[in-house]
Amino acid sequence: MAMFEQACQQAGLKLTHQRLEIFSELATSTDHPSAEALHRGLRQRMPTLSLDTIYRTLASLEENGLITRVKTGESQARFEAEQRHHHHLVCERCHEIIDFQWQTFDDSVLPDEILQWGKIKNKNAILHGVCKKCLDSV
């Protein structure tokens, strides 16, 4: 949490109680929650916390590079505090998102047509499919 506090100060963000609680909930979550899921998780501890405050806080933290929006193709945005490079598996039935490492992909040389396209900033893989739990429940 000390690193988050320092990053907020460097970004010029006030360390409000709400901001700390929202980040803490996100940082301890392993399921890449939506704003709505964060709101449900925080409601008991902070009954006056509005969904609008969560949306604005997430936008501010994302804008300052303190959290990441996980691009899943869903209409509902999902977020994570994990900043180390990784990739995602997304179940199209239950919407579970799993982080994974893929060093071969990370180390691979891009094809010439991609390199000629322009400047590539990063390589992130998002694999969509159906998880084993969902397959077994059919």
Describe the structure.
The protein has 2 domains: 2-80, Winged helix-like DNA-binding domain superfamily/Winged helix DNA-binding domain (Arc Repressor Mutant, subunit A), CATH 1.10.10; 87-136, Dna Ligase, domain 1 (2-Layer Sandwich). The chain is 43% helix and 14% strand. The strands form 2 sheets. The chain has a 3-stranded mixed sheet, with no helix packed on it. It has a two-stranded antiparallel ribbon with strand order 1-2. Helix 2 crosses helix 4. With 138 residues, the chain is α+β, with helices and mostly antiparallel strands. It is globular and about 50 Å long. The chain contains 7 helices and 5 strands, in the order H-H-H-H-E-E-E-E-H-H-E-H. It has helices at 2-11, 17-28, 35-42, 51-63, 103-107, 112-117, 132-136, and strands at residues 68-70, 78-80, 87-91, 97-100, 126-129. A hairpin with a 7-residue loop joins strand 1 and strand 2.
Query: Total number of β-strand segments?
Result: 5
The level-1 CATH class of the largest domain = Mainly Alpha
Strand content: 5-15%
Nearest-integer average pLDDT: 93
Task: Show the helix and strand layout.
Layout: H1 2-11, H2 17-28, H3 35-42, H4 51-63, E1 68-70, E2 78-80, E3 87-91, E4 97-100, H5 103-107, H6 112-117, E5 126-129, H7 132-136
Parallel strand pairs: 3-5
Antiparallel strand pairs: 1-2, 3-4
Helix pairs in contact: 2-4, 3-4
